[in-house]
């Protein structure tokens, strides 16, 4: 993203310990955007969550913090807030996820910052949005996944709702924020090209529960038109058959999707049950849903005596969608993941020495090619062994704003000088 020949500046302002800004700001960073991350004093808590490297930094943080420059500020200090104002003057996008009203209380709301930078795209992430009766309610991904409807349909009808072992709501909100900011930048540039005083930056309001709600596909119109409340359905999908998870003879599971009319026939032939493919009761999806138990039993009986790799090979040959359920170890060993360059090996500083680490590559310009020095440089920008700068820890200690120094240096906060 370019603006007047310069790289776009994205400034995420996350409060602790909420998560959406990292995935939001990760998306543009491989494409030459300069991302400056403002952390609380002592650093982002994610730096020390879950598994830790020998220097006390989590691989998780090194992944979500990639391609970003960091500085820690005490935003309760007026001097630190002045630094943020200076940062906003030269930024294209600001991302924040404080409780609604906090930024205005500090004099850092969109109305204030846009006085000096009318083109600033001000992106806000909160649990329930900036307006409405729940705007001031605290909102973490777990609660917002429940409020957004996802937890109701996920799991099994006879058990409590199931949570995926990921921060799904946060990541979805981050993706919505990245998309919203990108569309706002596009609108701004089109406005500037049109002239006539156009080209102002927008305010992007992202609610975690709304990002989750956007997954609900047919749940809303089905209730609106038929008053049908979709219930959890385990590993199947309500109203579509056959599509389910099946156990194989080697103890592994595969997911099979045979719900298209012609695909269903090929599936039944592949598992040695062609008579079911020709059965008029199964000619369309409605009939297959009615007899889904019978179909699941037939498919499950075949997979139960077949190793997962053979199940995959047979169904691949028949043109039936099928996928083994992968662990992260399976992903690392898979040739397709390798061919698509889904992982990138980089060097990170650990106790003043470089050591290897693997991160998900994510989106980037694949046309650049795997041997492109430009693409490698982009990936390494956040993990070069920059020398830490203690003077950036608390801007309130500076006699004057220290913004030029922040732009030049990535501050790698560790326990050594918190």
Provide a descriptive summary of the structure in words:
- The protein has helices at residues 21-26, 59-64, 78-89, 102-105, 110-116, 141-147, 150-153, 168-194, 208-213, 219-226, 261-270, 274-277, 285-290, 292-304, 308-318, 328-333, 335-339, 373-380, 403-408, and strands spanning 2-3, 6-7, 9-13, 34-39, 68-72, 93-96, 121-126, 203-207, 243-247, 253-257, 322-324, 343-350, 353-360.
- By secondary structure, it is α/β, with parallel strands linked by helices.
- The strands form four sheets. Strands 5-4-3-6-7-8 form a six-stranded parallel sheet.
- Strand 1 (2-3) and strand 2 form a beta hairpin.
- The longest helix has 27 residues, at 168-194.
Topology of this protein?
Elements: E1 2-3, E2 6-7, E3 9-13, H1 21-26, E4 34-39, H2 59-64, E5 68-72, H3 78-89, E6 93-96, H4 102-105, H5 110-116, E7 121-126, H6 141-147, H7 150-153, H8 168-194, E8 203-207, H9 208-213, H10 219-226, E9 243-247, E10 253-257, H11 261-270, H12 274-277, H13 285-290, H14 292-304, H15 308-318, E11 322-324, H16 328-333, H17 335-339, E12 343-350, E13 353-360, H18 373-380, H19 403-408
Parallel strand pairs: 3-4, 3-6, 4-5, 6-7, 7-8
Antiparallel strand pairs: 1-2, 9-10, 10-11, 12-13
What's the gist of this structure?
The chain is an alpha/beta fold and 418 residues long.
**If helices are DSSP runs of H or I spanning 4 or more residues, what is the number of helices?**
19
What percentage of the residues does DSSP assign to strands (E)? 15-25%
The biggest sheet amounts to: 6 strands, parallel
Unreliable runs? 1-7, 14-21, 363-418
Tally of DSSP β-strands: 13
Oligomer: single chain
**What form results from the Cα inertia axes?**
elongated
Main structural class? alpha/beta
What is the percent of helical residues?
25-40%
Radius of gyration, Cα only, in angstroms?
25 Å
Averaged pLDDT? 78
Q: What's the N-to-C terminus distance?
A: 34 Å
What order do the strands of the largest sheet run in, or round the barrel if closed? 5-4-3-6-7-8
